[in-house]
Amino acid sequence: MVFAILLTAVLSYLLGNLNGAILLSRLVEKDDVRNHGSGNAGFTNFFRNYGKSTSLLVILIDGLKTALSCLLGGWLLGKYGLYPGQPQVLFALSKLGAPTQNELAAHLGIGKASAGVSIRRLETGGFVKRIRDKKDTRCIRLSLTKKGEDYARWCSIDYDMFFTTMLESFSAEERGEALACIKAMEGSLDALRSRLES
Predict the structure, then answer these.
(1) Which of 58, 83, 87, 174 has its CA at a distance of 20 to 30 angstroms from the CA of residue 69?
(2) How far apart are the first and last CA of the chain?
(3) Can you tell me the mean pLDDT for 56-84?
């Protein structure tokens, strides 16, 4: 599991570093897009300097980078019986204890049907089990199995290691500022979710 997540992160990072505009300006135009116009290596500068026919290839390359990263992540997680997005469901179940499907959906900010699909897949994979509420037998709660607990713990360790690695060249002050910005963004997204739900 650790290897799969790290490999996905590294390969996605490397794919993301391929700049379609620079690549095509060098291979097709035998030039460097950064030597023209705004000096930016982006699509707009490429389009202004080389026209629309070659510019469409820049869009294609950038789209393929994204698609390949997603497919790679899905394939590697699939080897462990997980789909993209399911580690977050495992984290939520670990945090909430034994929520109902509706409580889980509300916590994740997704629809009940989407939560149901994820839960069925995780249940089939042996990560989640359904249990009857002891106080209200009409109520079905969700709980992690031993396998689910292990995978949630491994994913959490991997994510923490990846996050720590991303911030390792930051000073303590910069790290604090970055974390404060992330918390502020999270608060803004929570506020947006509340506004959309009301």
Answers:
(1) 174
(2) 39
(3) 76
Q: What is the DSSP-derived secondary structure letter of residue 84?
A: T
Q: On the CB side of 104, how many CA atoms lie within 13 Å of its CA?
A: 29
Pairwise CA distance, residues 142 & 144, whole Å: 7
The CB density around residue 148, as the number of other CB atoms within 10 Å, is: 23
Taking the C-alpha atoms of residue 149 and residue 127, their distance in angstroms, rounded to an integer, is: 8
Kindly list the distances between the CA atom of residue 73 and the CA atoms of 5, 59, 61, in Å, as whole numbers in the listed order.
Answer: 8, 21, 18
Choice among 20-24, 77-81, 83-87, 161-165 with the minimum mean pLDDT = 77-81
- Per residue in 121-155, pLDDT (tens digit) is 999 989 999 999 988 888 999 999 999 998 888 77
119 contacts 89 by C-beta, under 8 angstroms: yes
Contact 100, 132 (CB under 8 A): no
Amino acid at 166: M
Spatial contact of 104 and 114, defined as CB atoms under 8 Å apart: no
| β partners of residue 123 | none
